[in-house]
Specification:
Layout lengths: L3 H18 L1 H5 L10 H11 L5 H9 L2 H11 L13 H8 L1 H21 L3 H24 L5 H10 L2 H9 L3 H12 L3 H8 L4 H11 L4 H8 L11 H13 L12 H4 L3 H5 L4 H21 L2
């Protein structure tokens, strides 16, 4: 582990360098943030149009072979209670429904963004693994607590809650690993190091990306406050789900060891909905099973 004084010196040097590069200003510019692929934009537009019909959505999806393949794969997965009975795109869209197809398009696009941006970099690989586990846990939690949160929205919010880190990585390759060393040396949260060194934290940047992508304001609010759910103004319940999912599966190597099942059972959301250590174990087991399946489906 780094010496405390060495960590502080390194942080000061990085802060000075980033001030010269005007990183904060760059991250506030829409053109500098990750762009949602065009196919996902069109699918979101069609699925948001009350006049749109199934053939409209089918024609759009058919223009992207990779997305069409994923829609078929997901419609036949155990995740949606089916086993190889869907063979056409029309049947797949019917089986999944417009909203699920909408979020599937965003999920597939997110996977593409991570893959293109990463290039095998360990920070990107670790971030994708963490994001997919949080997405899966968020979906499970939303389904279990039944507070009116759409489970597919919860999945997408969990998957993209750290999209701000991806935006920062594009400007500062390897920053997660460096900042994690400082977190451990100083015993502080990752977001605090981001604010101290960069001037903004990843959750704020994630909120900007959600707004840029025309995501529902309730999701932008939840993602912006996934480390401070008590500050969420529009969708505190979703922010609490995201915070809890992060506690279940924190990013490895960032001075935040995985809590025990006993500790997880005392989290506010778990206590609020009368969930105990057995529930914690069941959620973790289901998450890892779904995570493995989703990893295969998104390949």
């Amino acid at each position: 582990m780094l010496d405390v004084e060495v960590a502080r010196e390194q942080m000061a040097e990085e802060r000075s360098k980033l001030e010269e590069l005007q990183i904060v200003q760059a991250l506030a510019q829409p053109k500098e943030l990750p762009a949602l692929p065009a196919i996902a934009v069109r699918v979101m537009q069609i699925t948001s149009d009350p006049k749109a019909k199934l053939p409209d959505l089918k024609r759009m999806i058919e223009t992207d072979e990779a997305l069409a393949s994923k829609v078929l794969k997901f419609s036949n997965s155990a995740l949606y209670g089916r086993a190889g009975r869907v063979s056409t795109l029309t049947a797949a869209i019917t089986a999944l429904g417009f909203l699920t197809v909408r979020w599937l398009a965003v999920t597939a696009s997110a996977h593409t963004l991570f893959r293109k941006s990463g290039g095998g970099d360990p920070d990107h690989a670790g971030l994708w693994e963490h994001s997919l586990k949080c997405a899966t846990t968020s979906r499970i939690l939303a389904k279990r607590i039944g507070t009116g949160q759409d489970i597919e929205e919860a999945f997408v919010a969990g998957l993209l809650h750290d999209i701000g880190k991806l935006a920062i990585l594009d400007k500062l390759p390897g920053y997660i690993s460096r900042f994690c060393q400082w977190c451990e040396a100083l015993s502080v949260e990752f977001s605090q190091v981001e604010v101290d060194v960069i001037g903004v934290d990843h959750s704020e940047v994630s909120g900007h990306v959600f707004e840029l992508w025309n995501m529902p304001p309730s999701l932008s609010d939840a993602v912006s406050h996934h480390h401070s759910p008590q500050m969420a103004k529009v969708n505190r319940s979703m922010a609490e789900i995201l915070w809890t999912a992060n506690e279940f599966f924190p990013m490895e190597g960032c001075g935040h060891p995985s809590p025990t099942d006993e500790e997880l059972a005392t989290l506010p959301l778990m206590l609020k909905h009368n969930m105990n250590e057995r529930d914690v174990a069941a959620i973790k087991e289901e998450t890892m099973s779904r995570y493995s399946e989703l990893s295969d489906l998104l390949r």
